[in-house]
Amino acid sequence: MKACEVSRKTRETDVFVRFDPSGGGVSVSTGIGFFDHMLTAFGVHGGFGLTVKAKGDLQVDGHHTVEDVGLVLGSALGQALGGKEGLARYGHALIPMDEALALAVVDLSGRPYLKLDAPMPQQQIGAYDSCLTAEFLRAFAMNSGITLHVRTLSGENAHHMTEAIFKALAHALQDAMAPVGGGVLSSKGVL
């Protein structure tokens, strides 16, 4: 695996991501405080080196920024994984955050898919629409080429539930990306 940098500029957003699966510092600036907090938690809990710089049309809302960061971060992860030789491939994590409990299960399959079951009890977390977590995860999974299942098993506070999701995703990816040696873990020989 290798560090990767990906940029994307549209009329709505300008996003730069540097993702290093082997570690490093974490620096995040998207203009959405809660989203910065979640991405920072993702980097720290995954043990990833992560730089995210995003400017978006926040005068509209956070949708384009959050979705495009998911797209660019997913692309960077997909590039970093390369051919996936010698990786564990599968990972899962069950993470509590006070009353909230979130499960994330990952397959570095090359077949992008998201199954999300995480209804949020509050619509807003600061300036962040809680429905944007689904947009981020979908863009991330589709552009990284992973199969991702996420579920909240309990929770009353959308902040806690969302934070548990981002931390669970980080830990699940860390497990899936663990070096185990050998070739690609597939009876087909490729992913």
From the structure above, extract its key features.
4 helices; four-stranded mixed beta sheet; alpha+beta; 191 residues; single chain; 31% strand; Ribosomal Protein S5, domain 2
Break the fold down into its secondary structure elements and pairings.
Elements lengths: L3 E6 L3 E8 L5 E4 L3 H14 L2 E8 L6 H19 L8 E8 L2 E8 L5 E5 L6 E2 L2 E2 L2 H13 L2 E8 L3 H19 L15
Parallel strand pairs: 3-4, 7-10
Antiparallel strand pairs: 1-2, 2-4, 5-6, 6-10, 8-9
Helix pairs in contact: 1-4, 2-3
Task: Give a short overview.
By secondary structure, the chain is of the alpha+beta class.
Shape: globular
* CATH H-level superfamily: Imidazole glycerol phosphate dehydratase, domain 1
Could you give the order of strands across the largest sheet? 1-2-4-3
Q: Percent range for helical residues?
A: 25-40%
Beta-strand content: 25-35%
First and last CA, distance: 15 Å
Rounded mean pLDDT score: 95
Question: How many strands in all?
Answer: 10
Taken in chain order, the helices and strands follow as: EEEHEHEEEEEHEH
Count up the helices. 4
**If you consult CATH, what is the topology?**
Ribosomal Protein S5, domain 2
Oligomer: single chain
Q: Kindly give the count of domains.
A: 1
CATH class assignment: Alpha Beta
**Architecture in CATH?**
2-Layer Sandwich
Largest sheet properties = 4 strands, mixed
Q: Tell me the radius of gyration.
A: 16 Å
Low-confidence stretches: none
Structural class: alpha+beta
